[in-house]
């Protein structure tokens, strides 16, 4: 039976029925009510100890009331302070559990020690300086009777020691002039800033925090020696009166200043920024000004930037009516710009300065020029940007510090190098890679400025490894074919293919590739056969590119390029031996702002063997007939007609080896004019090998012959060896 059942019984009896019960039953129900109430309020924790660093805080001794509830306070030095927790349970409380919380991290779980006489845990707090409601919740598991689990919450109050000092280097102030001082604190984050000015004091002040530095702004209102009293507040409380009272108020800081008066009384205005435009010039701006005491209503006063007569007219002030707070409602018509840092503004009557004031008069925000700097480049007036890149955008014009610029559908990245002045501002923007607009409009306070960035697809030259070439084998990237390529088969065609998936990647975008092909064929002597040029071959990245939808163009190359479709004089398969096909692939430089790539393919139609009919004149041959033991004497000049094979060097272009092998006829001593009847004239069928000199440019050569054959007249086999005469025409 739990508390819910008890409340249900009470509701049923409605107390009136309770009073009508017999005395015994009423007493039983009353005892049951008291027992359940005592069980519901039974505490789980008898005492609790929290140790940070070298100091221990206990629930029995270190408590303070906050909003009427007891809190265990402890001093911390770091926002992520580590503490040791000791929990002493009540005698009836066993199997305690510490509920997990986002306020701390359990380093060591809650563990029973010494048979459960106390529990120990180690925990690390999170953001003690900013956590407002910190507590530890303990829970006891459901007992055997079935009663619901009991919980107990111990509220914690982290406190820290915060000091604040004010040591001004100059104690001289002037009425109406704001001055800024630095404040010194051991914990600046715990000092509560006061962005609003105090009101009605001799010296008004406000406290602000800028990049972790506390700054005090003071504004004197009365002359003489005046005391400034600061009443700083803290974000986290601390204890006073021997740790019995919680407070957020630091001790007051008092500092005396000498406040001097200007020769002219300073009148403050309710608006510090006025825009110079057509409306403020003609109709005027409503302005509330301090009462100058000598103002005449319905009168126009001249405002100049110098005290002496003859100053430039900055504005005109027309007084309309007095207000109940000792101020004057005016119309202000402005004619020139003014900055508070330049000088004061003087309110004049008949060229005589009466009062001094100050405010900014800025021209209407206007952008005169937009410049873009790409990563690693210089500033340029070309406002084209590419998807996925980060660029710096510089806006130049007037009154730019007051503007609130933003760029349509792009993100502005904070940068330490950003520039912001009246005449120029610089933003670092990141263009989304998936942007679907052609223009990025620049807005000021939600209104278009008339300027925009033009989105252009990347058009950068990609290395030509996406161009493949096939001339009888599998396609190969053209960038791998450096130098002359010797090919010893018939070239049926030269086909160029394009790997459109290899242009754009997730991290690098290149866009369309504009290529040109210069084709030239020449014979073995280097004489030109045909020359063709194919311009503006456009290769577009395929569907795998994130920008594929924006590359759609009817001029994009579809399919491969066949060389035979371009040649008209002679096709590749009809070219002679050792002809050369020279193809130069390059980017069309007119389409890019950076140098492109060039790759040259030189395909040489190589041959291993050359067959021809050769007529030569061997002379002085030594012959040996079959059956004879010695060679004959040197013979005369013979005539040899041979079907001959020549062999090319395998690694040199059109370079023959110095030997040949042939078969044919030899007329021995065909040119022997001797009258000797014993001259051996005969016709033989021979197989000859010849060795030629290595000089290829000689017209007259003397080769050596060796071989053998069969003599027709003598009907005998023979061998021969000797020199010859070769004539190259």
How is the topology of this model organized?
Blueprint lengths: L2 H11 L2 H5 L2 H18 L4 E8 L2 E4 L4 E4 L2 E7 L6 E8 L6 E3 L5 E10 L4 E8 L8 E7 L9 E10 L4 E2 L6 E3 L4 E7 L17 E8 L2 E8 L3 E7 L2 E8 L4 E5 L3 E8 L4 E2 L6 E4 L1 H5 L2 E6 L9 E5 L8 E10 L4 E8 L10 E5 L2 E6 L2 E4 L2 E9 L4 E2 L3 E2 L4 E9 L6 E3 L3 E3 L10 E7 L8 E6 L2 E9 L11 E4 L5 E2 L6 E4 L7 E4 L14 E10 L5 E12 L21 E2 L17 E8 L10 E8 L3 E10 L3 E4 L13 E10 L7 E13 L13 E10 L8 E2 L2 E8 L4 E12 L2
Parallel strand pairs: 4-10, 12-19, 20-27, 21-28, 31-37, 40-46
Antiparallel strand pairs: 1-2, 1-5, 3-4, 5-8, 6-9, 7-8, 9-10, 11-13, 13-15, 14-15, 16-19, 17-18, 22-25, 23-24, 23-26, 24-25, 26-27, 29-30, 29-32, 32-35, 33-36, 34-35, 36-37, 38-39, 38-41, 41-44, 42-43, 42-45, 45-46, 47-49, 47-54, 48-54, 49-50, 50-51, 51-53, 52-54, 53-54
Characteristics of this structure?
about 725 residues, mainly beta, Immunoglobulin-like, 7 domains, seven-stranded mixed beta sheet, six-stranded antiparallel beta barrel, 4 helices, 54 strands, elongated, disordered N terminus
């Amino acid at each position: 039976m739990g508390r819910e059942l008890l409340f249900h019984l009470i509701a049923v009896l409605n107390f009136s029925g309770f009073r009508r019960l017999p005395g015994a039953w009423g007493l039983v129900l009353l005892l049951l009510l008291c027992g359940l109430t005592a069980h519901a309020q039974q505490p789980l924790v008898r005492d609790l100890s929290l140790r940070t660093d070298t100091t221990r805080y206990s629930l029995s001794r270190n408590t303070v009331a906050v909003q009427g509830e007891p809190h265990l306070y402890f001093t911390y030095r770091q926002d992520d302070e580590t503490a040791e927790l000791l929990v002493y349970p009540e005698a009836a409380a066993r199997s305690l559990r510490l509920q997990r919380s986002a306020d701390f991290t359990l380093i060591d779980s809650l563990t029973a020690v010494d048979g459960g006489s106390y529990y120990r845990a180690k925990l690390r707090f999170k953001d003690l300086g900013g956590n407002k409601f910190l507590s530890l919740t303990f829970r006891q598991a459901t007992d055997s009777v079935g009663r619901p689990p009991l919980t107990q919450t111990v509220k914690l109050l982290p406190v820290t020691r915060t000091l604040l000092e004010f040591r001004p280097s100059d104690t001289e102030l002037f009425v109406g002039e704001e001055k800024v001082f630095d404040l010194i604190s051991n914990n600046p984050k715990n000092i509560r800033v006061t962005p609003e000015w105090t009101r009605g004091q001799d010296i008004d002040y406000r406290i602000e925090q800028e990049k972790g530095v506390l700054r005090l702004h003071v504004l004197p209102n009365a002359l003489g020696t005046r005391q400034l009293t600061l009443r700083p507040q803290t974000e986290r409380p601390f204890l006073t009166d021997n740790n019995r009272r919680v407070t957020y108020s630091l001790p007051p800081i008092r500092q005396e200043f000498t406040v001097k008066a200007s020769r002219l009384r300073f009148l403050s205005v309710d608006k510090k920024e006025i825009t110079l435009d057509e409306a403020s010039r003609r109709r005027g701006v409503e302005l509330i000004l301090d009462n100058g005491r000598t103002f005449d209503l319905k009168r126009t006063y001249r405002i100049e930037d110098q005290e002496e007569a003859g100053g430039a007219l900055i504005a005109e002030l027309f007084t309309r009516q007095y207000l109940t707070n000792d101020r004057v409602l005016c119309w202000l018509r402005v004619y020139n710009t003014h900055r508070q840092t330049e000088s004061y503004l003087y309110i004049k009557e008949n060229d005589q300065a009466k009062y001094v004031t100050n405010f900014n008069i800025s021209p209407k925000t206007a952008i005169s020029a937009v410049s873009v700097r790409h990563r690693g480049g210089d500033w340029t007036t070309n406002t084209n940007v590419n998807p996925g890149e980060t660029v710096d955008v510089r806006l130049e014009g007037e009154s730019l510090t007051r503007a609130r610029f933003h760029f349509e559908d792009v993100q502005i990245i904070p940068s330490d190098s950003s520039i912001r002045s009246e005449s120029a501002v610089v933003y670092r923007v990141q263009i989304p890679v998936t942007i679907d607009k052609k223009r990025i409009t620049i807005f000021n306070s939600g209104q278009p400025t008339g300027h925009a960035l033009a989105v252009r697809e990347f058009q950068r030259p990609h290395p030509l490894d996406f161009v493949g070439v096939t001339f009888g084998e599998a396609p190969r990237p053209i960038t791998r074919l450096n130098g002359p390529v010797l090919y010893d088969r018939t070239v049926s065609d030269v086909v160029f293919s394009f790997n459109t998936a290899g242009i754009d990647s997730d991290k690098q975008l290149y866009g369309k590739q504009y290529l040109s092909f210069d084709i030239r064929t020449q014979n073995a002597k280097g004489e030109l056969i045909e020359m063709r040029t194919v311009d503006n071959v456009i290769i577009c990245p395929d569907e795998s590119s994130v920008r594929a939808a924006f590359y759609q163009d009817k001029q994009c190359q579809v399919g491969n390029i066949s060389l035979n479709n371009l040649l008209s004089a002679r096709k590749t398969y009809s070219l002679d031996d050792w002809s050369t096909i020279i193809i130069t692939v390059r980017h069309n430089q007119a389409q890019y702002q950076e140098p492109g790539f060039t790759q040259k393919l030189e395909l040489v139609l190589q041959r291993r063997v050359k067959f021809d009919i050769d007529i030569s004149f061997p002379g002085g041959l030594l012959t040996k007939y079959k059956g004879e033991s010695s060679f004959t004497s040197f013979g005369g000049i013979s005539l040899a007609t041979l079907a001959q094979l020549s062999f090319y060097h395998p690694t040199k272009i059109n370079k023959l080896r110095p030997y040949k092998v042939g078969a044919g006829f030899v007329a021995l001593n065909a040119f022997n004019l001797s009258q000797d009847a014993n001259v051996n004239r005969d016709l033989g069928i021979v197989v000859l090998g010849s060795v030629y000199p290595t000089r290829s440019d000689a017209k007259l050569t003397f080769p050596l012959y060796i071989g053998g054959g069969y003599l027709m007249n003598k009907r005998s086999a023979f061998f021969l060896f000797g020199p010859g005469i070769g004539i190259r025409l």
